[in-house]
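Model it.
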Amino acid sequence: MIAFIVGCFCLTINTCHAQLILNKLNQKHLYDGYQEISVNYQLVKSDTALSLFFQLTLSKHLSIRGFQYSYQLIRDYEDNINITQPTFLSLADNMIDSTDHNYYFNTSIIAGSSPTILLLNISDTVNTRYFYYDITLNHPKDFPDSDLLIWVEGQEHPHLKPFLSASNSFKIISYYDSVEQVFAYHYRDNFKYAEPPMITSTSLSKRLTIDSMFTIPTGSNINLQKEGLYFFQSDTNSFNGISIRISDRYFPRIKHIRKIIDPLVYISTQEEAEELRSADNIKQALDRYLFDLTRSSQRAKRIVRRYFNQTANANIFFTNYKEGWKTDQGMIYLTFGLPDQVLRSWDLETWVYFKLGSRPEVRFDFKKVKNIFSSKHYQLIRDNTFDQVWFNQVGSWRKGRPLIKD
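Modeled.
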């Protein structure tokens, strides 16, 4: 499975023997749009081998020459982890490709069969910082990893993000096996956006209907013009495969006027949302809607810019089988902003917001859910006690003064 971003913790230390417990680390860097480094990755697996492809993106003022990496295997999130590693490898000397400030790597992993965590350690030697990324192996709520990779035409590295523009030609390759073709499934389903956190009676997702099925020769470039979710596998009798969302060329940003109105559902009444969707002139209806909310054209511009910056970040961090803003995590992130704390364990991710309005602390728990399309699918544990904090937050957006964390 392709997974977009994994857990990250950045630590500056001065001791050589300090230890950490993984589930106690604040991993808010995971979803920080202003972080200096980020990692995308994909595990590639056969019956006898396992490889990690990862993409390291650095801020333009950082040099790859100042970074090293290593990995260690730990049993679970309650284990102590060593801050320093015995063997670091030079990132600059182990690249398979680089474009702008994106650097690509491939490393072979020796792992056992029991559930464990691959902890990737990126070391900033110039500033003495360690960035940790936790990647689960053999997790009971993950489907088996595939050996398939998506390779965009003209690039010397695999595509490691969960979305791709319809304008890109790409090929599917089998990294370990010499299969001649893969089976492709297209799901046109638009997928429902997340319900607010206090709605505890959410309906179960309906069974997905395959819109079309076809085969693709491995190693041959193709171009998929239909937007939506695609799933590829080399063996229809297994659950192994990879998925990708084909989107328009602007994604993760939203530019098309008819798509712009959709994410506004979180701060709109049902009547407002229906009126926007049915308007003959959507732009005029949208301008009127925003002005009626804020009573100021300047506030309207500010709220649009901030809201859709949040939408783009939600799409970057949380897109899996559906757009990131539609997921439970995307909904909370879009509405409340970056959490003050992100804590992770085997099956749970907890977000903590401090001093949110009149409340000293608000916690949102997301449980990991098994999903054939993504190993990064989490569902919010909803509670009707979230109603007041939700309505207060939505009200601040509607007044043009959102109380979100940057």
